[in-house]
Amino acid sequence: MSPAASLRVAEVFSSLQGEGLWLGQRHAFVRLAGCNLSCRYCDTPRTRKVSAGKPWSEAEVRGALSRLFAERKHDAVSWTGGEPLLQAAALPPLMRWVRSQGVKNLLETNGTMVEAFKEVEPFCDLASVDVKMPSAVGRETWSSHLEFLRVAPGKCFVKAVLTARTTRAEWRQIIRLMQEAAPDMPLVLQPATARGGEGPAEPDAVVFFLRQAAALLKDVRLIPQWHPVWGLP
Ligand code: SF4
């Protein structure tokens, strides 16, 4: 490992953002290795271990992004994983530099690392907070999510991945969570993309969840993942 290495990076690439509020924008993705959770529906299982990443210095990350920015215009850098906040200490200078290039920062996070988010939040333009249900991760993370969403409610949206295991009780809990944290915050319902035996919620269930949420929250959207449909990474 180089002594100057400061990040464990699994990959850096350019693609269209395939989910969430910035769907369809051209993003540079920095996928950081390591995660503090183990979701049944994980679409990046290979990068859950820190060892899946190689050590990169800040200069190497800037260099890779500079090359992508020189090839075409990018709307944002998506800091993704794994869980990027595991490496929060290295992110502010890089995010500040991204902004200096006229590009925005999107943080894709599981919304459990509150103190780390406080370090990074001033440099985020948007955070996609993947609120976890016990049926997906095997334990409750509601209190961490509530604290997390209260850090910067104006910069966050909640992504809720709906699987065949999602229960009505879990759904009521998500709605309560958002009512307590920030009822104006956008909620994106994302049916799980079928993989590894973990299927998406049935269409009837998705409609039920959508109606329940739309009756109680201000901004509710149904946005499936599009990059698998487009055949993009
Ligand atoms: S938090 Fe994200 S990266 Fe981590 S296991 Fe869950 S889906 Fe995978």
Task: Please provide a written account of the structure.
With 233 residues, the protein is α/β, with parallel strands linked by helices. It has a single domain, classed as Alpha-Beta Barrel (TIM Barrel), CATH 3.20.20.70. The protein is 33% helix and 22% strand. The protein is built from 8 helices and 9 strands. A 9-stranded mixed β-sheet has the order 3-1-2-4-5-6-7-8-9. It is globular. The structure holds iron/sulfur cluster. The site of iron/sulfur cluster has 11 residues, from loops.
Helicity level, as a percent range?
25-40%
Enumerate the spans where pLDDT stays under 50 for 5 or more consecutive residues.
none
Q: How much of the sequence is in beta strands?
A: 15-25%
What's the arrangement of strands in the largest beta sheet? 3-1-2-4-5-6-7-8-9
CATH topology: TIM Barrel
Q: What ligands are attached or bound here?
A: iron/sulfur cluster
Q: What gyration radius follows from the Cα positions, in whole Å?
A: 17 Å
CATH superfamily: Aldolase class I
CATH level 1 class label: Alpha Beta
Order of helices and strands: EEEHEHEHEHHEHEHEH
Total tally of structural domains: 1
Shape: globular
Show the helix and strand layout.
Blueprint (H helix, E strand, L loop, with lengths): L6 E10 L9 E7 L21 E3 L1 H14 L4 E5 L10 H10 L3 E6 L4 H7 L5 E5 L3 H4 L4 H10 L4 E7 L5 H14 L5 E5 L11 H14 L3 E3 L4 H4 L3
Parallel strand pairs: 2-4, 4-5, 5-6, 6-7, 7-8, 8-9
Antiparallel strand pairs: 1-2, 1-3
Helix pairs in contact: 3-5, 5-6, 6-7
Bound molecules: iron/sulfur cluster (SF4).
